[in-house]
Write a structure and sequence with these properties.
transferase
């Protein structure tokens, strides 16, 4: 089921909900991404930024997206 845009749709839905409906005061959304090139690229394409380089050899990578940047895009 990969490559159908479902993950991107879900990310956009979550961000739009926080930004448009004022559900909560939220500045960032974070994920612990599986540390493989395909998964990392997916989150990068959706605007996520690596939180640190210290977890490069770990099984997961902490990534985040500032909602303010998303709102300006």
């Amino acid at each position: 089921m990969q490559g159908q845009g479902i993950g991107t749709f879900i990310i956009n839905f979550i961000m739009d909900t926080f930004l448009n409906y004022k559900v909560a005061r939220c500045q960032f959304i974070t994920v612990d991404s599986l540390n493989n090139p395909k998964t990392n690229l997916f989150y990068e394409k959706n605007g996520f930024i690596y939180q640190t380089v210290l977890d490069m050899s770990s099984s997961t990578r902490r990534m985040y997206i500032p909602l303010k940047l998303y709102q300006e895009a």
